[in-house]
From TrEMBL:
CDD domains: PNP-EcPNPII_like (cd09009)
GO molecular function, one term: purine-nucleoside phosphorylase activity
Name the UniProt record assigns to this protein: Purine nucleoside phosphorylase
Record keywords, A-Z: Glycosyltransferase, Transferase
Native source organism of the sequence: Methylorubrum salsuginis
GO terms under cellular component: cytoplasm
Lineage: Bacteria, Pseudomonadati, Pseudomonadota, Alphaproteobacteria, Hyphomicrobiales
A matching Pfam family: PNP_UDP_1
Length: 270
């Protein structure tokens, strides 16, 4: 099976190598963030060994390298989800590859359902923590002791602070919250959402957590931002569906692009 060594070699030949201030993973409907990246070179996932072909509408399936606010970045436009093939480690090769290409931080974005009345559709929420309700872990089967990854500060406090400062600079409201990962692909029931809320969740979704675990395993610093596309089932009349997710995420994408650009400008050098 292809791995990050083959993928990295392919991408070096295509001009993707060199230090990167940040890698960005885009969620459903959030590919517009790519348009903010200047001097862009791009390659389809299907041309990169070991990269998955996203099987969900709203996920582009391309790797980009370019400049964002004068800083070199790598953008993974779209992801593979655990529910597509039952593989929670589907994004291991892409994340390992961007690390090998020179990134040491990753900004993960997603579309989510909100349990917070104050953070309705179109809101941006920086993740402070997560709850894994999926029954999956991408490190199951890993043989080394590196699998015992500390997760106390999975979402780096200094990167969260940089995101808050970036939002203030751009005049954007940035909420904070805990994200609960459900396996999907069916949306959560109202009872499941009530359970998640009682456990401390502010958002629900079907991604991000496996990438966060993998990124921490690989030694990457992680920040994550949700674009709220709907109220979760049973919250303020929420009855989510995928068309709504894509449509609202696309509208929130402009704010997310502004936030990401301001965040890239404020990143520490190391």
């Amino acid at each position: 099976m292809a791995n990050e060594i083959e993928a990295t070699a392919t991408l070096r030949d295509k001009g993707f190598a060199g230090p990167a201030a940040l890698a960005i993973v885009t969620g459903t409907g959030l590919g517009a963030l790519v348009q903010a990246v200047e001097e862009r070179i791009s390659l389809d996932y299907e041309q990169i060994p070991g990269f998955p072909a996203p099987g969900v509408s709203g996920h582009g399936g391309r790797l980009h390298r370019g400049m964002l606010s004068g800083r070199p970045v790598l953008v993974l436009e779209g992801r593979a989800h655990a529910y597509e093939r039952g593989d929670p480690a589907a994004m291991r090769v892409p994340l390992a590859t961007v690390a090998a290409l020179g990134a040491n931080r990753v900004l993960i974005t997603n579309a989510s359902g909100s349990l917070m009345p104050k953070a309705g559709p179109g809101s941006l929420v920086v993740l402070t923590d997560h709850i894994n309700l999926s029954g999956f872990n991408p490190l199951i089967g890993e043989a080394s002791d590196a699998r015992f990854v500390p997760m106390t500060n999975a979402y780096a406090p200094r990167l969260r602070a940089a995101l808050r400062a970036a939002a203030e600079m751009e005049g954007l409201i940035l909420h904070e919250g805990v994200y609960a990962w459900f396996s999907g692909p069916s949306f959560e029931t109202p009872a499941e959402v009530r359970m998640a809320g009682r456990l401390g969740a502010d958002l629900v979704g079907m991604s991000t957590v496996p990438e966060t675990i993998l990124a921490r395993f690989l030694g990457l610093e992680v920040a994550a931002v949700s674009a709220v596309t709907n109220f979760a089932a049973g919250i303020s009349g929420g009855d989510p569906h995928h068309a709504e997710t894509k449509a609202v995420a696309a509208r929130a994408g402009a704010d997310l692009a502004r936030l990401a650009a301001a965040f890239a400008a404020r990143l520490p050098e190391s």
